[in-house]
Amino acid sequence: MDRDRMINEAIVKLALIRDADRQRIERVAADLERYTYEPIFLFPVPGFLRMDKLSVVGYIKGLENMGEEEIRSFGILGDESPDELVGRQLKMVIRNFSLLSRLREDEPEAWDEIHELYEDD
Question: How many other C-beta atoms are found inside a 10 Å radius of the C-beta of residue 49?
Fold first, then answer.
């Protein structure tokens, strides 16, 4: 699948995810930072915990022009093509933003996921 198509599909998926107001975004980001929560990505997504939907769209569109050299500069080695790596990154961004949205909605099951990772049993 070509990169443009993957990016367009990611933006369509992103459109289905709820956004939150600035106050809620900040509150959840601060809560997650207390856990030292950092979502996993192949390459950096600066400020992810405070991103709103529009910011994520901007980040996703920026992946369109990311070249192989820049992708490899993040230390990603292997047989995957740059487009395959961008595709994996897009899936991670959508999955993590979906979780973030659920946290911002105070969905108990979403917080359970965080608590399972960061709290002792």
Answer: 19
